[in-house]
Write a structure and sequence with these properties.
This protein is an all-alpha fold. It has a single domain (about 15-170), classed as Chorismate mutase (Chorismate Mutase Domain, subunit A). The protein contains six helices and no strands. The chain has helices spanning about 15-45, 55-70, 75-100, 115-140, 145-155, 160-170. It starts with 16 loop residues before the first helix and ends in a 6-residue tail after the last helix. Bound molecules: the ligand C=C(O[C@@H]1C=C(C(=O)O)C=C[C@H]1O)C(=O)O. The ligand C=C(O[C@@H]1C=C(C(=O)O)C=C[C@H]1O)C(=O)O binds near residues 89 and 118. The site of the ligand C=C(O[C@@H]1C=C(C(=O)O)C=C[C@H]1O)C(=O)O has 13 residues, from α2, α3 and α4.
Protein backbone atom coordinates (compact mmCIF):
# COMPACT_ATOMS: atom_id res chain seq x y z
CA UNK A 1 0.00 0.00 0.00
CA UNK A 2 0.90 3.63 0.08
CA UNK A 3 1.60 3.75 -3.66
CA UNK A 4 -1.19 6.19 -4.31
CA UNK A 5 0.44 8.78 -2.07
CA UNK A 6 3.80 8.47 -3.75
CA UNK A 7 4.84 11.56 -5.71
CA UNK A 8 6.34 11.09 -9.15
CA UNK A 9 9.40 13.30 -9.48
CA UNK A 10 8.92 13.90 -13.22
CA UNK A 11 5.28 14.99 -12.93
CA UNK A 12 5.01 18.32 -14.82
CA UNK A 13 3.27 21.06 -12.90
CA UNK A 14 0.05 22.39 -14.42
CA UNK A 15 0.51 25.72 -16.23
CA UNK A 16 -0.41 28.67 -14.02
CA UNK A 17 -2.86 31.34 -15.23
CA UNK A 18 0.16 33.57 -15.89
CA UNK A 19 1.76 30.84 -18.05
CA UNK A 20 -1.48 30.61 -20.02
CA UNK A 21 -1.40 34.39 -20.45
CA UNK A 22 2.08 34.05 -21.97
CA UNK A 23 0.62 31.60 -24.52
CA UNK A 24 -2.12 34.18 -25.16
CA UNK A 25 0.52 36.83 -25.81
CA UNK A 26 2.22 34.54 -28.34
CA UNK A 27 -1.03 33.63 -30.11
CA UNK A 28 -2.23 37.24 -30.21
CA UNK A 29 1.18 38.31 -31.56
CA UNK A 30 0.75 35.64 -34.23
CA UNK A 31 -2.78 36.83 -34.99
CA UNK A 32 -1.49 40.41 -35.33
CA UNK A 33 1.13 39.13 -37.80
CA UNK A 34 -1.66 37.47 -39.78
CA UNK A 35 -3.14 40.95 -40.21
CA UNK A 36 0.26 42.09 -41.57
CA UNK A 37 -0.69 40.20 -44.75
CA UNK A 38 -3.70 42.49 -45.15
CA UNK A 39 -1.61 45.56 -44.28
CA UNK A 40 0.93 44.53 -46.93
CA UNK A 41 -1.88 43.96 -49.45
CA UNK A 42 -3.37 47.38 -48.69
CA UNK A 43 -0.03 49.03 -49.55
CA UNK A 44 0.96 46.78 -52.49
CA UNK A 45 0.96 48.63 -55.80
CA UNK A 46 0.51 52.00 -54.08
CA UNK A 47 3.08 54.61 -53.04
CA UNK A 48 2.18 54.06 -49.38
CA UNK A 49 5.39 53.04 -47.54
CA UNK A 50 5.46 50.04 -45.20
CA UNK A 51 6.71 52.26 -42.40
CA UNK A 52 4.34 54.96 -41.11
CA UNK A 53 5.99 56.68 -38.09
CA UNK A 54 2.99 58.87 -37.10
CA UNK A 55 0.74 55.81 -36.99
CA UNK A 56 3.36 53.93 -34.94
CA UNK A 57 3.41 56.79 -32.45
CA UNK A 58 -0.38 56.73 -32.31
CA UNK A 59 -0.40 52.96 -31.62
CA UNK A 60 2.21 53.30 -28.85
CA UNK A 61 0.58 56.37 -27.26
CA UNK A 62 -2.85 54.73 -27.36
CA UNK A 63 -1.56 51.53 -25.76
CA UNK A 64 0.34 53.45 -23.07
CA UNK A 65 -2.82 55.38 -22.20
CA UNK A 66 -4.95 52.24 -22.06
CA UNK A 67 -2.24 50.49 -20.02
CA UNK A 68 -2.27 53.24 -17.44
CA UNK A 69 -6.11 53.14 -17.27
CA UNK A 70 -5.83 49.37 -16.61
CA UNK A 71 -3.02 49.72 -14.11
CA UNK A 72 -0.59 47.81 -16.33
CA UNK A 73 3.11 48.63 -16.42
CA UNK A 74 3.44 51.16 -19.25
CA UNK A 75 7.10 50.44 -19.84
CA UNK A 76 6.43 46.74 -20.51
CA UNK A 77 3.51 47.62 -22.78
CA UNK A 78 5.56 50.09 -24.85
CA UNK A 79 8.45 47.64 -25.12
CA UNK A 80 6.24 44.75 -26.23
CA UNK A 81 4.22 46.87 -28.69
CA UNK A 82 7.41 48.31 -30.20
CA UNK A 83 8.31 44.68 -30.96
CA UNK A 84 4.86 43.99 -32.46
CA UNK A 85 5.35 46.94 -34.81
CA UNK A 86 8.87 45.91 -35.86
CA UNK A 87 7.65 42.33 -36.42
CA UNK A 88 4.73 43.61 -38.50
CA UNK A 89 7.06 45.55 -40.81
CA UNK A 90 9.36 42.53 -41.07
CA UNK A 91 6.45 40.41 -42.35
CA UNK A 92 5.20 43.17 -44.68
CA UNK A 93 8.67 43.55 -46.21
CA UNK A 94 9.00 39.78 -46.61
CA UNK A 95 5.65 39.57 -48.38
CA UNK A 96 6.44 42.49 -50.71
CA UNK A 97 9.69 40.73 -51.59
CA UNK A 98 7.84 37.49 -52.30
CA UNK A 99 5.26 39.31 -54.42
CA UNK A 100 7.95 41.16 -56.34
CA UNK A 101 9.80 37.92 -57.03
CA UNK A 102 6.63 36.02 -57.93
CA UNK A 103 3.98 38.49 -59.11
CA UNK A 104 1.46 35.70 -59.64
CA UNK A 105 1.35 35.24 -55.85
CA UNK A 106 0.59 38.92 -55.18
CA UNK A 107 -2.86 39.88 -53.91
CA UNK A 108 -5.33 41.13 -56.49
CA UNK A 109 -7.58 43.04 -54.11
CA UNK A 110 -6.62 45.92 -51.83
CA UNK A 111 -8.18 46.06 -48.35
CA UNK A 112 -8.87 49.51 -46.89
CA UNK A 113 -6.09 50.18 -44.38
CA UNK A 114 -7.85 52.88 -42.34
CA UNK A 115 -11.38 51.49 -42.46
CA UNK A 116 -10.83 47.77 -41.97
CA UNK A 117 -7.23 46.74 -41.37
CA UNK A 118 -6.09 49.15 -38.65
CA UNK A 119 -9.29 48.66 -36.63
CA UNK A 120 -8.52 44.91 -36.65
CA UNK A 121 -5.01 45.66 -35.34
CA UNK A 122 -6.51 47.89 -32.64
CA UNK A 123 -8.87 45.12 -31.48
CA UNK A 124 -6.00 42.66 -31.14
CA UNK A 125 -4.04 45.36 -29.31
CA UNK A 126 -6.67 45.52 -26.60
CA UNK A 127 -6.60 41.75 -26.11
CA UNK A 128 -2.82 41.82 -26.07
CA UNK A 129 -2.90 44.44 -23.35
CA UNK A 130 -5.09 42.21 -21.17
CA UNK A 131 -2.78 39.24 -21.78
CA UNK A 132 0.26 41.36 -20.82
CA UNK A 133 -1.49 42.35 -17.59
CA UNK A 134 -2.33 38.73 -16.77
CA UNK A 135 1.17 37.51 -17.68
CA UNK A 136 2.92 40.16 -15.58
CA UNK A 137 4.01 37.74 -12.81
CA UNK A 138 5.78 35.53 -15.38
CA UNK A 139 7.11 38.43 -17.47
CA UNK A 140 8.90 39.91 -14.47
CA UNK A 141 10.00 36.58 -12.99
CA UNK A 142 12.98 34.26 -13.42
CA UNK A 143 11.00 31.74 -15.54
CA UNK A 144 10.13 34.32 -18.22
CA UNK A 145 12.56 33.27 -20.95
CA UNK A 146 11.64 29.59 -20.63
CA UNK A 147 7.92 30.32 -20.54
CA UNK A 148 8.06 32.61 -23.60
CA UNK A 149 10.17 30.07 -25.46
CA UNK A 150 7.62 27.29 -24.78
CA UNK A 151 4.74 29.52 -25.90
CA UNK A 152 6.62 30.64 -29.01
CA UNK A 153 7.46 27.07 -30.07
CA UNK A 154 3.84 26.00 -29.56
CA UNK A 155 2.39 28.86 -31.61
CA UNK A 156 5.13 28.81 -34.29
CA UNK A 157 4.23 25.23 -35.24
CA UNK A 158 1.32 26.43 -37.38
CA UNK A 159 3.22 29.27 -39.09
CA UNK A 160 5.24 29.54 -42.29
CA UNK A 161 8.89 30.56 -42.13
CA UNK A 162 8.27 34.30 -42.61
CA UNK A 163 5.61 34.51 -39.90
CA UNK A 164 7.75 32.34 -37.62
CA UNK A 165 10.54 34.92 -37.99
CA UNK A 166 7.99 37.63 -37.32
CA UNK A 167 6.83 35.87 -34.16
CA UNK A 168 10.39 35.57 -32.92
CA UNK A 169 10.83 39.32 -33.48
CA UNK A 170 7.48 40.03 -31.81
CA UNK A 171 8.50 38.23 -28.61
CA UNK A 172 12.11 39.43 -28.50
CA UNK A 173 11.72 41.72 -25.46
CA UNK A 174 8.72 40.14 -23.76
CA UNK A 175 10.83 39.55 -20.66
CA UNK A 176 12.02 42.50 -18.69
C1 LIG B 1 0.70 48.00 -39.67
C2 LIG B 1 1.14 49.06 -40.35
O1 LIG B 1 2.45 49.19 -40.83
C3 LIG B 1 3.50 49.59 -39.96
C4 LIG B 1 3.36 48.88 -38.67
C5 LIG B 1 2.54 49.40 -37.70
C6 LIG B 1 1.99 48.53 -36.61
O2 LIG B 1 2.44 47.37 -36.50
O3 LIG B 1 1.09 48.96 -35.87
C7 LIG B 1 2.19 50.77 -37.73
C8 LIG B 1 2.62 51.58 -38.73
C9 LIG B 1 3.52 51.11 -39.82
O4 LIG B 1 4.83 51.57 -39.55
C10 LIG B 1 0.25 50.18 -40.65
O5 LIG B 1 0.62 51.03 -41.47
O6 LIG B 1 -0.87 50.23 -40.08
Amino acid sequence: GGGAEQKKAAEPTAPSPADKAVVSIASLASERLGIADRVAASKWGTDKPIEDPPREKQVLDDMAKRASDMGVDGEAVQRIFRDQIEANKLVQRGLHQQWTAAPATAPTTRPDLAKEVRPALDRIGGDLLTAIRDAQPVLTGPQCAASVERARTQVAASLDELHRQGLERALLHACR
